[in-house]
Design a protein that fits this description.
This protein is an alpha/beta fold. 31% of the residues are buried. Mean pLDDT is 87; it is low at 10-16. A hairpin with a 4-residue loop joins strand 1 (31-32) and strand 2. The longest helix has 24 residues, at 2-25. It is built from twelve helices and 15 strands. The protein has helices at residues 2-25, 47-52, 54-65, 70-83, 111-127, 140-143, 157-167, 176-182, 198-212, 233-236, 337-344, 355-360, and strands spanning 31-32, 37-38, 88-89, 92-94, 100-102, 132-137, 171-174, 221-228, 244-249, 255-259, 264-265, 290-295, 302-307, 324-328, 348-354.
Length: 375
């Protein structure tokens, strides 16, 4: 009996050794189209990096990312865990009606840092002479809580919104009630991705217009893809997943889009991404540090949006409301935001972030005036 146990232990560790050897010998992949992320590469060895642990960490990441047949292993792992009744796999909740939710709890962010960020935004608001609006987009699990697994931990959104309303003197647009009222008859979020749908973005646009005292424009939506599997699906690769459809507003007014690399376009849409994994990048071709959009709208109003990727499918609805729109994504923009406000002549400022993104976004500290310490 002991001999058999010893034999299987040797076989097991020898298999792991062979797997590690094959991982080093086979060509490495730099990017995973399925997971839509950069993969870890072979770590650089030095005695200093081994001493401080960076080499071991890099080696672990490399072996995990470059393991042969990685996609097959992830699919098999998900199938086995589902058979055992698991409703959480790789920090993803397997929800009802084929919805997947990124796990995000009260322990996923720092409350003190959140307060510091709100105070930073308030400081910027006080320094500007133009009106500021904060749109915190509710997380999918906040609106679709009935589709979360039973007793699944999820963060307290009330605390975030209450803190925002307490610390900010600007308008705070709370979409939660409106979204809950429409969730039964409108798909507001993708099932397999963390973003809102174009239908959800339009509902937010209507509420934004109400807050600003303007009449929302009407747009027809057209399906541009029926086989979208988003970023949350990529973490579990569940064979039972149902693809999403991507809709986009059509017959948009004329525009000129200028990206921060100098390229120009007369459309928001990049159809080449519909043939790739990251189909949400159909809107603007993904995220940029700064994008300027000039329109033919009969108004002198100019809007600066400080945003995350949720704004990419929201901005098309604004074409008839502003003569110029500047989008700044602080994850990629390294300049001074207040310089952008002055240079663009913005007459309004909108912060647009999905709430859990906002709570963990490291780029937003770029709002702090130069020379001051960020929270």
């Amino acid at each position: 009996m002991k001999r058999n146990r010893f034999f299987f232990m040797v076989l097991f560790f020898f298999s792991l050794f062979l797997l590690a050897v094959f991982t080093f010998l086979l060509p490495t992949e730099e990017f995973s189209q399925v997971e839509n992320r950069v993969l870890a590469q072979k770590p650089h060895f030095s005695f200093q990096e081994m001493k401080d642990g960076r080499f071991q960490t890099g080696l672990s990441d490399f072996l995990s990312d470059q393991v042969p047949f990685r996609t097959t292993w992830i699919k098999a792992n998900t199938k086995v865990q589902k058979l055992t009744g698991r409703k959480e796999i790789n920090e993803v909740y397997l929800g009802k009606d084929h919805y997947y939710f990124q796990k995000f709890t009260d322990q996923s962010y720092s409350a003190s840092r959140m307060i510091g960020i709100f105070r930073m935004i308030e400081g910027m608001t006080q320094r500007q002479s133009v009106p500021v609006t904060m749109m915190l987009v509710p997380s999918p699990g906040t609106v679709l809580s009935d589709k979360l697994p039973r007793n699944a931990p999820y963060y307290n959104a009330n605390l975030v919104y209450d803190t925002a309303k307490q610390l900010l003197s600007c308008k705070v647009l709370d979409l939660r009630e409106t979204f809950r009222d429409h969730a039964a008859d409108t798909q507001l979020y993708y099932r397999t991705d963390h973003h809102w749908t174009s239908q959800g973005a339009y509902l937010a646009y209507e509420e934004y217009c109400k807050l600003m005292g303007t009449e929302p424009k009407q747009y027809d939506l057209q399906e541009v893809s029926g086989d979208f599997y988003g970023t949350i699906y990529s973490k579990v690769l569940d064979g039972a997943a149902k693809p999403d459809s991507i809709m986009a507003p059509v017959d948009l007014p004329k525009m000129q889009v200028v990206y921060d690399n100098g390229t120009e376009s007369h459309s928001f849409y990049h159809e080449e991404f519909l043939q790739k994994k990251d189909q949400y990048a159909y809107f603007f071709g993904g995220n940029w540090g700064k994008v300027t959009i000039k329109t033919e709208a009969p108004t002198k109003e100019k809007l600066l949006i400080i945003k995350d990727s949720f704004a990419n499918s929201f901005v098309p609805y604004l074409l008839g409301d502003y003569g110029e729109i500047t989008m700044v994504d602080l994850r990629y923009f390294k300049g001074n935001v207040e310089d952008v406000i002055q240079e663009s002549g913005s007459t309004q400022i909108l912060f647009l972030y999905e709430t859990s993104n906002f709570l963990t976004d490291t780029g937003i500290v770029g709002l702090e005036p130069r020379g001051k310490a960020a929270p």
